[in-house]
Amino acid sequence: MTLRALIVDDEAPARELLCSFVAAWTDIDIVGDTGEGAAAVEMIRTLRPDLVFLDVQMPVMNGFDVVAALEPPEQPLIVFVTAYDQYALRAFDVSACDYLLKPFDAPRLRTTIDRVLQRRAGQGGGGPSDLAALLKHLRSSAAGEVVVKADGTHHFLRPDDIVWIEAMGKSVRVHLVRSTLEVRESLSA
After folding, report:
1. I need a labelling partner for 104 at 20 to 30 A (CA). Which of 15, 39, 85, 112 fits?
2. Which of 35, 44, 37 is nearest to 13 (CA)?
3. Cβ partners under 8 Å of residue 148, min gap 6
4. Which ranges of the chain does DSSP label H, i.e. alpha helix?
5. Comparison of pLDDT for 19 and 156, the residue scoring more
6. Residue 74 neighbours by CB under 8 Å, 6+ apart
7. Helix crossing, 106-120 with 12-22: angle to 10°?
8. Is the pLDDT of residue 173 over 90?
């Protein structure tokens, strides 16, 4: 049986990349994509996808807000796709099938699709052993990198690329060896 999937990410290049990766699976049909949370809620209600690849951090309405806006019977299977590992436990609190950490590769996406198919077939997934394996993967893949979002793009920085960080009210300026990034997050974030 073919899964109907919706892709939600506020970055158009990320949506396009995920669409191209997912298109490789003949048992998944992409029924739409959007970059806005409110539009995602409406598309979920009208298109009735089986699966949603959902970005966590989006302006106005984030991925968790999208899930909260849906009644339980409306909720499809959710795979959170994000560059930030700190939301992983919260994702499983809302019964996500998986948490796909950017940048990901084809084998990692295969693991995600397998989890989704197992969950859909009623074979579980998302249990304690799956959570432990996922957290181990998140820790190893993010080790040594700092992820910041500037100008609508996620930047994966090695600590030795950062010269210094300057707090500017509710924003941060990250001074790199060859450039500077303006990040609209607090220094504590």
Report:
1. 39
2. 35
3. 154, 155, 157, 172, 174, 181, 183, 185
4. 12-22, 37-47, 63-69, 88-93, 106-120, 128-142
5. 19
6. 44, 45
7. 70
8. no
Question: What value does the mean pLDDT take over residues 66-87?
Answer: 86
The mean pLDDT value for 24-41 works out to: 93
- Structure-derived torsion over alpha carbons of residues 185, 186, 188, 189, reported in degrees to the nearest 10: -20
Q: What are 85-94's pLDDT values in tens digits? A: 777 777 777 7
Longest dimension (CA), the chain: 52
pTM over 0.85: no
pLDDT tens-place string over residues 118-150: 888 874 444 444 444 444 444 444 556 677 777
Q: How many residues does the chain have?
A: 189
CB-based burial label for 158 (10 Å; 0-12, 13-18, 19+): exposed
* 35 vs 138: CA distance, rounded Å: 25
Give me the pLDDT at residue 66, please.
92
Residue 132: CB partners within 8 Å, gap ≥ 6? none
Please provide the distance, in angstroms rounded to a whole number, between the alpha carbons at the two ends of the chain: 42
The tokens for 59 are 């302006």
| Cβ atoms within 10 Å of 173's Cβ, excluding its own | 14
